[in-house]
From TrEMBL:
<dbReference type="Pfam" id="PF13614">
    <property type="entry name" value="AAA_31"/>
</dbReference>
<feature type="domain" description="AAA">
    <location>
        <begin position="3"/>
        <end position="178"/>
    </location>
</feature>
<dbReference type="InterPro" id="IPR050678">
    <property type="entry name" value="DNA_Partitioning_ATPase"/>
</dbReference>
<protein>
    <submittedName>
        <fullName>ParA family protein</fullName>
    </submittedName>
</protein>
<dbReference type="InterPro" id="IPR025669">
    <property type="entry name" value="AAA_dom"/>
</dbReference>
Length: 261
């Protein structure tokens, strides 16, 4: 049974998509069967993994609302063991159309249940909102990763997100855990970056991943190649950091990868 991890923060530009595609690729390189679900209408994970969103007809949304079979829309990627449920712009209208559906918060959970057994990990890239699609993702998930950028206002909005998580734990998904808070875009030369690390660690203690993602130009270039960073700069510090994160998560979840032998 695959572990479902949502990558969420309603703040834009904190590294959700970068984390979703590169963590998923790293788990796949460790030979875990991994599915990444693009649940953002901006479809950055879809294009980042080499698929043109303009050519996509069905996304997770059509599975949730129109009953499209998720198995029929799963795409392969350049990375072995890594598959993708793509997104496209129509996901924007989804929230409005879903408002009158019964169990509207549980649609994604029911869709994912159909393929959960086929994977070790299912990673959901959320949009920068706390709307119905993100609520669906958090209801479907076993845990959530919260990327926090090592920048000014790093903690801004985090209270609201944690409150939303609490409400979901109370009403919709009592088993939802915080997998970890992930510090992203860290710049060792900046005092501010180091201050943010200290502040977040002081506040959230062992909820914060040991692995810190550095600012790394290869990570920002990778979407233009349609590849995760590990596919073209495997020894670079961005790729190594996401591989370390994948190891940290695998160990935390008591999962052994075959490459460790
Ligand atoms: P989100 O999905 O939260 O909006 P993204 O992952 O798209 O955030 O990141 C926002 C921008 O920052 C993108 O241009 C991305 O390439 C860049 N970026 C993300 N993480 C890093 C990093 N560790 N180093 C350098 N650039 C990064
Ligand atoms: Mg994004």
């Amino acid at each position: 049974m695959g572990k479902v991890i949502a990558i969420a923060n309603q703040k834009g530009g904190v590294g959700k998509t970068t984390t979703a595609m590169n963590l998923a690729a790293s788990l796949a390189v460790l030979e875990f069967k991994t599915l990444v679900i693009d649940a953002d209408p901006q479809a950055n994970t879809t294009s980042g993994l080499g698929h043109d969103p303009k050519g996509i007809e069905n996304s997770i949304y059509e599975c949730m609302v129109d009953g499209v079979d998720i198995s029929s829309i799963i795409l392969n990627t350049e990375i072995e063991h890594l598959q993708l449920v793509p997104s496209h712009i129509d996901l924007v209208g989804a929230e409005v159309e879903m408002i009158n559906l019964d169990n509207r918060e549980e649609k994604m959970k029911n869709v994912i249940a159909k393929v959960k057994d086929n994977y070790d990990f299912i990673i959901i890239d959320c949009s920068p909102s706390l709307g119905l699609i993100t609520i669906n993702a958090l209801t479907a998930a076993n845990s959530v990763i919260i990327p926090v950028q090592c920048e000014y206002f790093a903690l801004e909005g985090l209270g609201k997100l944690l409150n939303t998580i609490k409400i979901i734990q109370t009403r919709l998904n009592p088993d939802l855990e915080i997998e970890g808070i992930l510090l992203t875009m860290y710049d060792v030369r900046l005092r501010l970056s180091n201050q943010v690390v200290d502040e977040v660690r002081m506040h959230f203690k062992n909820l914060v991943f040991e692995t810190i993602i550095p600012r790394n130009v290869r990570l920002s270039e990778s979407p233009s190649y349609g590849l995760p960073v590990i596919a073209f700069d495997a020894d670079g510090k961005g790729a190594v950091a996401y591989l370390n994160l994948a190891h940290e998560i695998a160990i935390k979840n008591g999962m052994k990868n075959t490459t460790d032998a």
